[in-house]
Amino acid sequence: MSDGPLLSTVNGAAGGRRGTAGLRHRIAERRQLARLDRAAAQLAELHLVRTVLGGAAGVVAAGWIQDGWFAYRDDQGRQQVVTAHDLHRIAGRQPTAACLVGAIVQAGGGLPAAHSQPVHRALNLAWQALFGSTEPVEYCPAPGLRVARVRELTAWNDRPNRTASEVHAVLVAAGRRAADQPKSNELTCAGSSATTVLVRR
């Protein structure tokens, strides 16, 4: 009796197992590479967010306001305050002061960058630093939650007896929080759609 057919069947089964194991190994490798790519992108983004927060602290140190987003000097040298209702007035002008939220927007690239992820994430870090959240940083909160947090930052900025030093301290703390993020931390998004941060005041 020949063992040929039996050996062929055994060898074929073994080869199939090796092929399946090889496929699983390649899939695992690709997933690991994807995780490493995400980690590298997250670290780069954290660096950018820290830069935005540091710039925002500089904006507040140069000039801080309440009850408005930005201030500028008009042609007569008078300070004009811009709110969410008349942001067009500051087009082409250099802000001389900003509120907490406005400072982050300005440091992130100005009004054209108001919808950008670095600005959104810097705002979220500022909110967490202000309210002492001990939860892992949620870099992409749902749009409704994002707007609610911006309103809370705005209300805190505009409270009577608030000082520029307190606002500056929040931005510094937020930058420190970004720097302290675990390098392996996965950034998760609760919602990916862009939402304006310029809510009505």
Which keywords apply here?
single chain, 201 residues, mainly alpha, 3-stranded antiparallel beta sheet
Largest sheet: 3 strands, antiparallel
As a whole number of angstroms, the C-alpha radius of gyration is 25 Å
Low-confidence parts, pLDDT < 50 over ≥5 residues?
190-197
> Which of globular, elongated, flat, extended, rod-shaped describes the shape?
elongated
Structure in words:
This protein has about 200 residues and is mainly alpha-helical. It has a domain of about 130 residues. The chain is about 55% helix and about 5% strand. The chain contains five helices and three strands. A hairpin with a 5-residue loop joins strand 1 and strand 2. Helix 1 packs antiparallel against helix 5, helix 3 packs across helix 4 and helix 3 crosses helix 5. The chain is elongated and about 80 Å long. About 30% of the residues are buried.
Quick synopsis:
The chain has 201 residues and is mainly alpha-helical. It contains 5 helices and 3 strands, in the order αβββαααα.
Topology:
Layout: H1 4-62, E1 70-73, E2 79-82, E3 97-98, H2 100-107, H3 117-131, H4 143-157, H5 164-179
Helix pairs in contact: 1-2, 1-3, 1-5, 3-4, 3-5
